[in-house]
Amino acid sequence: MPEETRNAEVRHESVEQQINWDDYRDHLATADQQGRRIWVYPKKPSGRFYRWRTWLSYLLLLVLAVGPFTKINGNPLLMFNIVERRFSIFGIILWPQDMFIFALFMLIVFIMVVLATAVYGRIFCGWFCPQTVMMEMVFRKIEYWIEGDHVEQRALNAAPWTPRKVRKKALKLVIFYVISFVVGNLLLAYIIGSDRLILIITDDPRNHIHGLTAMMLFSLLFFGIFARFREQACTFICPYGRFQSVLLDEASIIVGYDYKRGEKRGKKKRGQSEEERAAAGLGDCINCGMCVSVCPTGIDIRNGLQMECVHCTSCIDACDSIMDRIKKPRGLIRYASLNSIEKGEKLKATPRLFIYTTVLFLLTGLLGYLLLNRPPVDAYLLRAPGALYQTMPTGHLTNLYLLKLLNKTNAEMPVELKLENVEGKITVAGNTNVMPGKMSEPAVVVELAPEVLTAEKNPIEIGVYSNGRKLETVRTVFVGPEKARHAL
Ligand code: SF4
Ligand code: SF4
What we know:
six-stranded antiparallel beta sheet, binds iron/sulfur cluster, 3 domains, 18 helices
């Protein structure tokens, strides 16, 4: 055996010896000692949290499905066209010129995620994340429907390839691919807009090679994620699970096992009384393993908070059903903070929870205010480079400017200008009927009588109006002869 290979094996063996396979911290719940994946067969969950999550998921899926197709004032409800840097949030189109609002939006979302995690733990992962919603509420439900619960699934996978197994697997994969195709198309609609997506589907395919390629790639990506990759996407790809260790503290609300109440765990023997269990030093956990068997990430929540936990609450439901059966109070596994578990207290509203929640609402309000008060037209007035004032035969003076108008709405916008702070005449040479999403750059001539000038550089304000409504005020200077300054 070559020496290098021998050395590598020795190194591998010494690493193996260092790993304590009984300690969950030393290895992933979904990998064996050879690093091979352990497929997770979660038991079908049931209970009040699962019911509430199911209804919320249906609502979220509905919003997700109609988001790019619903129009407000002709704009999509939601669109994130990163290719053309056009974004639509609740029908308000953000153009590249609005990037600061979008950047602020992303910053506020980031702060909201940090604050929400600090207070409410990974509530987003369990209740709102599209990956969890799609996996647990769509693909997993179809799997249960076709292959049965976890025991039947395990048996089917271990069984030889009979016509029945081929039929079940083929049916599942076809349905998975069809749904992945729909999800891939939805994602594309979010990126390029529903109109473009419909065009790609209905037009000659030769005109949309890029769009069709993206469609196929997205479909295959989602098929791979939901058919095979599954919980690994949360564990290995999503950075959020890794961030949580720095975002959470002992006051954060997490899905937690009340070890004070549950330990020492031990099976409940037939006919064993509470007194006998207490005398044996046993807690409320009867070590039934139900919380582990329902976990879609294959972990044991009794080991404490772990990176893999997506806070799906399935273990809460499972343990509550066991507590009901053994006539113990619910909540051995529950939403709790580490502080509340250690002190044996019920979860209560702390000042931090109140302050962070208030900040979250304020940030959401700020974002809404910025979006709603964004001017529909961007107007910039620049003095024509190198141009000085001109004297007219009437004795009046003129200055030449270049106006840049960007229509940020989805409708044609006729624009007119008015001098606001001084008597004079304003003439626009060029197009002031700006098309949706387009820019117009007309020349503007401002004519003033010399008597109104008070200095060599006179500040002037020009109002930008459309259909009688003032949209914005632009400010610039009107340059006159030097004697205007001496006339003061
Ligand atoms: S479900 Fe509850 S009782 Fe059963 S093992 Fe888990 S924590 Fe213990
Ligand atoms: S430990 Fe509980 S909450 Fe966390 S992922 Fe598993 S079942 Fe869901």
